[in-house]
Specification:
Order of helices and strands: HHHHH
Helix content: 40-55%
Number of strands: 0
Number of helices: 5
Largest sheet: none
Strand content: under 5%
Length: about 80
């Protein structure tokens, strides 16, 4: 299946992700999270290549395998 902006579950578009990625080290993740309506963990995951790597080209070598930590991140977003 092709990846695109049309998944209604995504709060971010590919263009948003490219902008967030480009602003690494320039704008604090808290500010970007507020601006785009996502949690800080989502911004960090983009920056470190954990998510959206098909858009940014950054490969982290890490995967979201720690379910407990992922659940904490999700809870922090609520």
């Amino acid at each position: 299946m092709a990846r695109n902006d049309h998944d209604k579950r995504n709060k971010l578009t590919m263009e948003n992700v490219r902008i967030i990625f480009a602003l690494y080290g320039v704008v604090p993740k808290e500010e970007l999270a507020r601006k785009y309506g996502v949690c800080e963990a989502s911004v960090a995951h983009i920056w470190y290549g954990i998510t959206w790597s098909h858009v940014t080209g950054k490969k982290s070598g890490k995967r979201l395998v720690n379910r407990q930590q992922n659940e904490k991140d999700v809870e922090a977003c609520k």
